[in-house]
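Box S1 | Example of a co-folding query
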Amino acid sequence: MAHTVTLIPGDGIGPEITDAVVRILDAAGADIQWEHAKAGEGALKEVANPLPPETIEAIRRNRLALKGPLTTPSGTGFRSINVALRQEFELYSNVRPVRTLQTGGRYEGVDIVLIRENTEGLYSGVEHYIGIGNDPRAAAESVMLVTRFGVNRILRYAFDYALKNGRRKVTLAHKANILKYTQGLFLDMGREIAKEYEGRVEFEDRIIDATAMQLVLDPGRFDVIVCENMFGDILSDLIAGLVGGLGLAPGANIGESAAIFEAVHGSAPDIAGKGVANPSALLMAAVMMLAHIGMNETGRRITAALEATIREQDTLTPDLGGTGTTSTFADAVIRRL
Ligand code: NAD
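Box S1 (continued) | Returned holo structure for nicotinamide-adenine-dinucleotide
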C-alpha cells in the first residue's frame, strides 16, 4: 500500500532540493504519494501564516513529513517553525547521523550518530526581557527546562537506538560541572539508565566543550552521542563539518505520533535560486524516512547510487568541489539506480 507523505518544500534552496529528491525517490520506485503543504517564510507571504493549520492537519493525518529548510528571522519576527513543529508533535528525538562519503577529506571513516533532545532545554522558548528603570530591555532571561520525563525518554531512545543499530557506545555530552541542576539531572539519569544496558552498550560521559575538541581531534572515538537540545544543535553542525559540510548531514525528528525528516542545514539564502544546492542531505533524510516505514530495500538502492555518485565524483555540486548543479547531480544518482 502506498504511503502518503506530507511534503513541505520550504524556503530558500528548499524547493530546488525537494524537487531533486522527489525525482530520485520516484525513479527508485518508492511507493509514495506526496501531499504538498506550506510552511515558513514563503507561507507567511502567501497565506499570512508561517505555519498554516492545514499543514499541521496534513502532518497529523499522514504522520509522516519530508521537509525542506524553513527560514527563521534572527532576533525578531516569528518564532522558529521548526521548533514549533517539534513541540506540536512532540518529536522528542532528533537523530542526526554523519558518515564519511567523500574520501580525501580531513578524516576517513567517520561514522557518528548524534541524538539530540528536541523539545526541552534552552529551546523551550521560555524567555523574556526584564525592565529596569527606563530600560524595558535592561536584561533578558531564558529558561533551560529539563524534566525527568523528557530526559528519561531521550536517553532510553539513544540506548535502544544503539542496540537496534549494532552500535557499541553511547557518549552523553553535558555541562553538569556548571549547570548542576539541569545538566546534573541529565548526567545522573544517564548513569542510572546506562546500568540497564551494561554489557550490551558501553557508556561514557564527557563535558560538552571537551567533546567538541575531541570530535575535531579524533572523531573515530565517538559512536552515538546524546545531549540536550542546544548542545545537540551545535554539535550536529560540527560533526557535519567533519565529513564535508552541511550538504551531507540528514536528520529525523521522531515522536510517538509523527516523524518529520529533513536536512540539518538551513535555507542557504546565499545560494538559493542558483540551482547549485546539494540535495544529498535531504535525500539521505528521505532514505531515513524509507527505513522508518519499512522500505529498507529502496532506501539501500538509493544510498548505493548516491555513494557511487559521490565516490566517482560525477557532477558533484560546488560544496563538494564539483561544477555540477542540483539537477545534474540528481540525474547522476538516477542513472545509477
Ligand atoms: P544554512 O545551513 O542555511 O547555510 C550555511 C552555509 O552552508 C551556507 O553557506 C550555505 O550556502 C551552505 N549550505 C547549506 N545547505 C547547503 C546545501 N544543501 N548545499 C550546499 N551548500 C549548503 O545556515 P544559515 O545561513 O545560518 O541559515 C539560513 C536560514 O535557515 C536561517 O533563517 C535559519 O534560521 C534557517 N535554518 C533552518 C533550518 C531548518 O529548517 N531545519 C536549519 C538551520 C537553519
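Residues 148-164 form the longest helix (17 residues). DSSP finds eleven helices and twelve strands in the chain.
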